[in-house]
Design goal:
The chain is an all-alpha fold. Helix content is 77%, strand content 0%. Helix 1 crosses helix 2. It starts with a helix and ends with a helix.
Length: 66
């Protein structure tokens, strides 16, 4: 479970610090030209990444206590 918590924290960190990466993986290949993610997409991805990191940190702390 500790390994899973660390993976969740890493996934959240990538989502928080590099929100364009997810857009590039999902939509970037299908778009032709100089297009990119909207500001709303970046903001919501960062919020989601922060929530995922908090959940992973909670799991990590829970595992250390129990």
């Amino acid at each position: 479970m500790t390994f899973l918590a660390v993976l969740i924290i890493i996934a959240g960190a990538v989502s928080f610090f590099f929100p364009e990466f997810g857009w590039e993986m999902k939509h970037g290949w299908a778009v032709d030209g100089d297009s990119g993610p909207s500001d709303d997409y970046i903001m919501l991805t960062k919020i989601g990444g922060a929530i995922i990191m908090v959940v992973g940190l909670g799991l990590f702390i829970y595992r250390m206590i129990v």
